[in-house]
Amino acid sequence: MADKRKQSFYFPTNYIEEIENESLRQDRTRSWLVQKAWELSRDKIMGFPGIDDYLEDKKKAENATKDN
Question: What is the SS3 string spanning the chain?
Fold first, then answer.
């Protein structure tokens, strides 16, 4: 495994409870569970548009309305 650094993440209370319950059910650490969740969802999340994509689309839409 690569560099291990302590990080703080802030989740809604219900997420924390679900992660804790699932980590107990699987007899795994919360860290392990969150790492696996990221590994499984990484490709899908990386397919989400970024803020630059949103701003570019908004700018194109504004320019289109100005041209008409």
Answer: CCCCCCCCCCCCHHHHHHHHHHHHHHCCCHHHHHHHHHHHHHHHHHCCCCHHHHHHHHHHHHHHHHHC
Q: Give the C-alpha separation, 64 to 23, whole Å.
A: 51
The pair of three-digit structure tokens given for residue 52, joined into one six-digit string:
């630059």
Rounded CA separation 11/23 (Å):
16
Tell which wins on pLDDT, 34 or 6: 34
Quote the pTM value: 0.67
